[in-house]
Inverse folding.
């Protein structure tokens, strides 16, 4: 398909924005056909087209909102409203993050709308971000073996800080996964990205009514089995804690906690959201899930360096506990006012990363 038949987001190459940014190259797709490649796209997100922009010798990343699907919808105006509302919500959340100086969250350098023609489909809302080296899903494979442990422990530290910063403003990320953590500057500088699926308590958003707004391939097990906790913090912040713990599994094994867990279940035990046949409550299957989770921790321990395995297994067991009532640090859970605090995990990952740095220098 030619990009000329697609919405304006696909036709921005060579355009100079009013602010002086020039759109110079596509990221992850072929400008002659619009075909996508499996390529890092900067901040993630569906319904978007990625570019590199440049101004005064500085390069950045532009995410243009693709309106193509809306133009073929049964109700064009309703679909356009949903897509543009999602974009506006993300821009508002990013403004909050900027105002709070969240240095471990990817914030927007600029937001706006550009048009490449007179028609509705020619318009493209956009966001511009600092240009990253890539997401940790791919970058971790390029790190030398002797430095890899320290590299990903620094990533865990920065991710925990980023989530803690978001939670301080009652923003639940809900879609934390390897492709939504970006590395910057060719050094140990990591930031949480893509707030398009986030939920903000007290701010109306497009995903508020969803049980879980993130990628179900990484979702906590209670979500997969349809358990809805009426408490906002338990449901939203508790899910974020699970997603943080799942990153330990990813860095150690290459797969998130949910992917491992589901692989241990037979079809009759799997949730219907993942093509399983379980038709009873989550409470009924929770003992089995806990048993399988224990097996996962044993396997995870075998994949970790002995110098940090005890601490990381403890963290993974607390953050990813299949029972959301037991999720989080035990000392925080007794303090009902802040039982989802990440402060102790921020300190833990920081300490382990520094110890790994020392070990890596000794090897070198």
């Amino acid at each position: 398909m030619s990009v000329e038949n697609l919405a304006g987001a696909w036709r921005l190459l060579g355009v100079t924005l009013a602010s002086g940014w020039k759109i110079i190259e596509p990221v992850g797709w072929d400008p002659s056909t619009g075909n996508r490649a499996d390529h890092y796209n900067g901040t993630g997100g569906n319904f978007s087209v990625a570019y590199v922009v440049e101004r005064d010798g500085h390069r950045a990343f532009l995410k243009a909102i693709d309106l193509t699907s809306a133009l073929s919808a049964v109700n064009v105006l309703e679909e356009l409203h949903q897509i543009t509302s999602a974009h506006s919500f993300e821009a508002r959340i990013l403004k909050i993050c900027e105002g709070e100086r969240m240095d471990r969250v990817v914030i927007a350098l600029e937001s706006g709308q550009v048009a490449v023609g007179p028609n509705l489909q020619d318009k493209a809302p956009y966001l511009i971000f600092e240009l990253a080296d890539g997401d940790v899903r791919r970058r971790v494979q390029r790190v030398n073996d002797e430095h890899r442990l320290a590299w990903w422990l620094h990533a865990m530290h920065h991710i925990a800080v980023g989530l803690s910063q978001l939670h301080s403003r009652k923003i639940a990320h809900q879609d934390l996964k390897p492709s939504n953590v970006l590395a910057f500057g060719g050094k140990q500088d990591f930031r949480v990205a893509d707030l398009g699926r986030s939920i903000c308590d007290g701010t109306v958003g497009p995903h508020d009514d969803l049980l879980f707004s993130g990628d179900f391939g990484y979702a906590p097990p209670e979500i997969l089995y349809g358990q809805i906790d009426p408490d906002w913090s338990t449901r939203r912040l508790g899910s974020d804690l699970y997603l943080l713990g799942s990153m330990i599994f990813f860095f150690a094994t290459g797969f998130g906690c949910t992917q491992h867990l589901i692989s241990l279940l037979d079809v009759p035990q799997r949730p219907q959201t993942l093509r399983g046949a379980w038709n009873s409550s989550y409470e009924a299957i929770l003992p089995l899930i806990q048993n399988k989770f224990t097996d996962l921790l044993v396997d995870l321990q075998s994949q970790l360096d002995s110098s940090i395995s005890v601490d990381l297994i403890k963290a993974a067991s607390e953050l990813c506990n299949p029972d959301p009532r037991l999720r989080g640090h035990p000392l925080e859970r007794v303090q009902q006012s802040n039982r989802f605090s990440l402060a102790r995990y921020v300190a833990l990952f920081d300490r382990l990363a520094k110890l790994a740095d020392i070990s890596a220098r000794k090897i070198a």
User: Anything to note?
Assistant: The CA atoms of residues 137 and 178 lie 5 Å apart.
